Amino acid sequence: MLWGLSFPVMKSLMLAQQNLLPGTGSWFFTSLGVMYRFGFAALLLAAVSWRELRTITRREVEQGMVISTFGVGGILFQMDGLAYTDASISAFLTQGYCVFIPLWVALVNRRLPTKKAFWCIALVIAGVAVLAKINFHSFKLGRGELETLAASFMFTGQILCLEHSRYAANRPSSFSTVMFAGMTLLCVPLVWATAPTASACLQAYATLPTCGFLALLIVPCTLMAYLLMNCWQKYVAATEAGLIYCIEPVCASLMALFLPAIFSAWAGISYPNEQFTLRLVLGGGLITAANVLLQSRWLENRA
To answer: What's this model's pTM, rounded to 2 decimal places?
Structure first.
């Protein structure tokens, strides 16, 4: 739900920044936003958990850096892929980790996924395809599609790293601080390469609405979302976690029904609400059904 919130917030922030710095490329806004978002999150988390950080372990540092590398790699591949494919196709292919994870688990364990997992994966793929309005007749695997699949593969690594037994004893606040700091540092070169001027880094957040959008991205969409993920995902199988995370586009679609008008009135931008359609009901219903099935005992082998 918190990641779903980030989509209308990021869209509103981008529109507001384009009014402040017309003609500036989206790469600059995106990389600057990621740098500020995770940089402030790292500072806030470090301020709260500074006593714990004094005893940080090598494996906590290692896990934080591994996750930050996968996270930034996924974001960058996804961003560049969007320049060469439709947003709907990108949204569909990004959820590829719900397929990659069970395939990886099957290879490692040398055991096929359960019948229930197959049905849940099929329901999720169908639901995301409906939400993204995928036209399979015109679908092709070009640069944009391949880069988006690479992004999904990187996100797969991020999810699998959280459940690895090597990091079972790690403290979430410690490796999350390293993760946020690592993602910030990895974005600095991209900001430097795309910034039109040094002052543009401040001008992009020169109004109250842009700072407010950034605050929403920092606190609920980053600190709260990633801490929940990093703390509790290790108690859930990676395949199950990947399927649960696919509820994100459903939440994003629901919030897009009313938040754009609120944000537009506040920031003075033109961002209309999306319309409630049968596509949203059907696509969201299929993904929700997959998650209900995942938590039920139906199709389980019983002794």
So the answer is: 0.84
Contact 170, 230 (CB under 8 A): no
| pLDDT tens digit sequence for 233-266 | 988 888 888 888 888 888 888 888 899 999 999 9
CA distance 116 to 122: 10
Q: Give the orientation angle of helix 2-20 with respect to helix 208-218, to 10 degrees.
A: 150
Closest to 221 (Cα-Cα) out of 212, 234, 209, 208: 212
String of DSSP letters for 14-53? HHHHHHHSTT--HHHHHHHHHHHHHHHHHHHHHHHSHHHH
Residue in 46, 27, 24 with CA at minimum distance from that of residue 35: 27
The encoded tokens of residue 206 equal: 């020169």
Of 95, 141, 139, the residue nearest 121 (C-alpha)? 95
Cβ atoms of 96 and 78 closer than 8 Å = no
Q: Are 74 and 179 in contact (CB under 8 A)?
A: no
Task: Give the chain's end-to-end CA distance (angstroms, integer).
Answer: 36
**Which tokens is 108 given?**
């490692």
DSSP 180: H
Q: Which residues contact 264 (CB under 8 A, 6 or more apart)?
A: 12, 270, 271, 272
pLDDT of residue 300: 65
Q: Which amino acid is at 196?
A: P
SS3 56: coil
Give me the residue spans of the domains in the chain: 2-295
* Nearest Cα residue to 186 out of 73, 60, 303: 73
What is the tens place of the pLDDT at every residue in 154-210? 999 999 998 888 998 999 999 999 999 999 999 999 999 999 999 999 999 999 999
Beta strands in the chain (DSSP E): none
Q: Which tokens is 92 given?
A: 């569909």
| Cα 78 from Cα 150, distance rounded (Å) | 8
